[in-house]
Amino acid sequence: MTIRGIKRDLLNLLLELGKDSHPNEFAALLTEECGVISELNLLPGTVTGSSSASVFFDMMPLGTHHAGSAHSHPNGVLRPSGADLNFFPRAGRYNLIIGAPYREGDWRCFTADGEPCELAVIP
Ligand SMILES: [Zn+2]
Fold it and tell me: Ribosomal protein: is it a keyword of this entry (predicted)?
């Protein structure tokens, strides 16, 4: 399945989750429906501090509509950490980082290799 983009509602929800979790991180798995990333499954647990969301991914279930992951960086750095680069290949093709202060444009998408990639926002 080719991914065409992410649903705006879901992106807004991810930004909201980042804000609600701050100063902690949240981590979620993303699933697609008909080529659009449209749902999330929050991973259990709370991690205090930054760059530690990868612990969530050790208990990651893999489903058929699995598209990737999203997690927040309370420090606002919109780049994958070393730990992120280790789990992106396991998490899937599209990996979103949501950064403080969690405004509309405070996110980036990365491939499994940790390279920045375009992801369309679909109304
Ligand atoms: Zn991270």
Answer: no
Output the CA 60–ligand 1 centroid distance in Å.
16
Kindly report whether the global pTM for this prediction surpasses the value 0.85.
yes
Q: How far is the CA of 15 from the centre of ligand 1 (A)?
A: 15
Residue at 33 is within a domain = yes
Residue 123 inside a domain? The answer is no
21-30, 94-103, 106-115: which has the minimum mean pLDDT?
Answer: 21-30
- Note down the domain range covering 89: 5-52+64-117
When divided into structural domains, the chain yields a total of: 1
Q: How many angstroms is it from 122 CA to the middle of ligand 1?
A: 24
CATH for 47: 3.40.140.10
Query: What SS3 state is found at 70?
Result: strand
Cis peptide before 101 (omega within 30 of 0): yes
Q: How far apart are the first and last CA of the chain?
A: 20
